[in-house]
From TrEMBL:
Swiss-Prot/TrEMBL cofactor(s): FAD
Occurrences of domain FAD/NAD(P)-binding (ranges): 4-293
Record's keyword terms, sorted: FAD, Flavoprotein, Oxidoreductase
Domain of life: Bacteria
Protein's gene: cmtAa
Keyword field contains Oxidoreductase: yes
Keyword Flavoprotein attached: yes
Protein name stated in the entry: p-cumate 2,3-dioxygenase system, ferredoxin--NAD(+) reductase component
Species: Pseudocitrobacter corydidari
Spans through the membrane: none
Domain Reductase C-terminal residue range list: 315-397
A GO term for molecular function: ferredoxin-NAD+ reductase activity
InterPro entries documented for this protein: FAD-oxidoreductase/Apoptosis, FAD/NAD-bd_sf, FAD/NAD-binding_dom, FAD/NAD-linked_Rdtase_dimer_sf, Reductase_C
EC numbers, comma separated: 1.18.1.3
Length: 398
């Protein structure tokens, strides 16, 4: 009998899993249940090139031919409504039921909104899907003023893209600093300076935000002020699509709990990408690298129980203005941050008391990121090294 693997979610992680299954010789049936109508695509360009290019195209994960060669059975645009782990079936929104031998959950997340009124306001935008990017791009082309709610990575990238397009940007962040959950105070301060230099009006530590306005604009009420904007983009994070896993009785915490091989608490069900909690770090990394590499490792493990697990240090990047910013690792409380200022941009080293590196944030310096991966892997004590001195060669610590 033909073995069947069902993948729920046609995003980046689902795509890499499907490709890896075929690359590693799986010749059974692969069914992909996808809510979106598009072929697998990557989301990072949506806040960058897709907003800036004159005629952006779908940022496909694989060429059309490469995807055809995967010989997938698509169920799209359809939602997986429910998983029955006992019967090993998935119920679809068109009433069909799909049986599986192994199941992979790759459902990602959905953009969060501050409240119901925001969901129906015609000038409120979020950015998660290809259509979102097209809709936002169209509106930006007609806008002089933009409010961004949320000073995380997506908000900052949209701010950079809008400024490049000559739009006046006001960014509201309720926390006292930008990207506060993911980087040190020193990096937050650098990001603030960068955006202020580019003319963004950044309001960190702002109070509660209320919204009204009509079809043509949005009115933001905050800290006693009433301001009118042509459009408002909300970038306050995502709600992970965990409902299917929870309702199926799978163990969830911040995300779906998986082992290093991507296996959930049900041995026939695996989870990848944004919804999967990093097996070593206990959090959902929500990055391009995790969506690809953890999905590849998981697909290999679905075919071979002895396949090595995934334990990479979290890594993500962000492109803002002329800067490529790479973030490796997770900052820990009570870290000491050493700042190194070079011509190409600053580097921030967050060190534990024992001198090991818990996070490196590097502007325009992928070489040092590679080096830092090795320092982290070997647990190197960097306390005595003059990291902040630009005359000191970091490469001498190879
Ligand atoms: C605008 C934007 C910019 C980004 N920029 C960067 C960056 O610069 N660097 C970086 O490292 N990371 C970046 N990321 C993060 C990165 O893109 C994500 O981590 C990655 O897309 C996660 O992949 P995924 O497959 O887990 O989820 P997704 O790509 O979200 O795919 C999940 C898919 O599952 C579908 N789905 C959900 N529920 C169901 C269901 N019940 N039935 C059927 N289908 C379902 C969804 O519609 C979606 O198509 C960015 C993300 C966004 C949104």
């Amino acid at each position: 009998m033909t073995v069947r693997i069902v993948i729920i979610g046609g995003g980046q992680a689902g795509g890499w899993a499907a490709k890896t299954l075929r690359d590693d010789g799986f010749d059974g049936e692969i069914c992909v249940v996808a809510q979106e109508e598009w072929d697998f695509y990557e989301r990072p360009p949506l806040s960058k090139a897709s907003l800036l290019e004159a005629s952006p195209t779908l940022p496909r994960l694989f060429s059309e031919e490469a995807q055809q060669a995967l010989n997938l059975r698509w169920y799209r645009p359809l939602r997986a409504q429910n998983i029955d782990p006992q019967a090993k079936t998935v119920a679809l929104s068109n009433g069909e039921s799909l049986s599986y031998d192994q199941l992979l959950i790759a459902t990602g997340g959905r953009a969060r909104l501050p409240g119901d009124a925001w969901a129906t306001h015609p000038q409120v935008y979020t950015l998660r899907h290809w259509q979102d990017a097209q809709r936002l791009k169209k509106r930006l082309a007609q806008s002089q003023t933009l409010a961004i709610i949320g000073g995380g990575w997506i908000g900052l990238e949209i701010a950079a893209s809008a400024r490049k397009s000559g739009i006046a940007v006001t960014l509201f962040e309720q926390q006292p600093a930008l990207c506060m959950r993911s980087v040190s105070a020193e990096v937050s301060a650098e990001l603030l300076a960068l955006h202020q230099q580019q003319g963004v009006d950044v309001r960190t530590g702002c109070g509660a935000i209320e919204l009204d306005g009509g079809d043509e604009n949005a009115v933001i009420h905050c800290d006693g002020q009433r301001e009118i904007f042509d459009a408002v983009v909300v970038g306050i994070g995502v709600d992970l699509n965990l409902e299917l896993a929870r309702d199926a009785g799978l163990k969830t915490d911040r995300g779906i709990v998986v082992d290093a091989q991507g296996r959930t608490s049900d041995p026939a069900i695996f989870a990848v990408g944004d919804v999967a909690q990093h097996a070593c770090y206990g959090l959902c990394v929500q990055s391009w690298a995790f969506a690809q590499n953890q999905a590849v490792a998981t697909a290999k493990a679905m075919l071979d129980t002895n396949a090595p697990g995934y334990d990479d240090v979290p890594w993500l990047w962000s492109d803002q203005y002329q800067h490529n910013i790479q973030i490796l690792g997770i900052p820990q409380p009570n870290s000491r941050t050493v700042v190194r200022r070079e011509e190409k941009g600053p580097i921030f080293f967050s060190l534990n008391a024992d001198g090991t590196l818990n996070q490196l944030v590097a502007f325009n310096d992928p070489r040092t990121v590679k080096l830092a991966k090795r320092w982290m892997a070997s647990g190197r004590d960097l306390n005595a090294e003059p990291l902040g001195d630009p005359a000191f060669s970091l490469m001498s610590l190879r």
